[in-house]
Design brief:
Elements: H1 3-22, H2 27-37, H3 41-62, H4 71-94, H5 97-127, H6 138-153, H7 158-169, H8 174-199, H9 204-223, H10 230-250
Helix pairs in contact: 1-2, 1-3, 1-9, 2-3, 2-10, 3-8, 3-9, 4-6, 4-8, 5-7, 5-10, 6-7, 6-8, 7-8
Amino acid sequence: MTGLEHVAIFAAGMAAGTINTIVGSGTLITFPVLLAVGFEPVVANVSNSVGLFPGSLSGAYGYRRELSGQRDRLRRLGGASLLGGITGALLLLTLPDRAFKAIVPVLIALALVLVVVQPSLTRVIRRGRTAVPLHGGPLLLAAVYGAGVYGGYFGAAQGVLLMAILGLALHDDLQRLNAAKNVLAGLVNLVSAVLFVAAAEVAWRPALLIAAGSVIGGQIGARVGRRLPPAALRGVIVLVGALAIANLLTD
């Protein structure tokens, strides 16, 4: 890789760490950059997952005040996230590469739709919830598990999906739900990263660059990220995601 490519990957990691902490979908920044640098899609996805895990920790730490009083909830939902992440990562490791190349453009398109409709989802959440007051029931556990499968396999907009699930199922402040989302997504990233390091090909240089950038981005997202214009942020994500789909389809 050239010096400019190193800088681009580090900057993408920082942007992804910021975006993931605020709402999710940071993979739509880093994954296309890794493709553009020349990595194969599966290697890019594995390296991206390993690299973004430290950023998840950073974002969760930045939201530590909002996590107060959520230990029991996170214990209950965290198990579903861990199992989902393991399932998704195993699917990535066992399905053939051509399946990933075929599925991922669809997943990116789904992620872009989620990013675009996220304001509408937030309005629905704020208007009224069919609320389960504390930790949710079996349907919430199943939904969190499904989000974990998605996140373990690819992960773009996993945070948006989790916010929609938590907001519709739980009666709580959105910032507290966002803090819980960061922990749950971090658990998915943890188990998938462990499996990928043990059983898959990781491009360590870009993974470490993304990790360094995402740790910084996680703190930015927790402290000042809420001041970013949401419409501009969504526009950048949609543009980058569309470029990733084009890259995959023309590869």
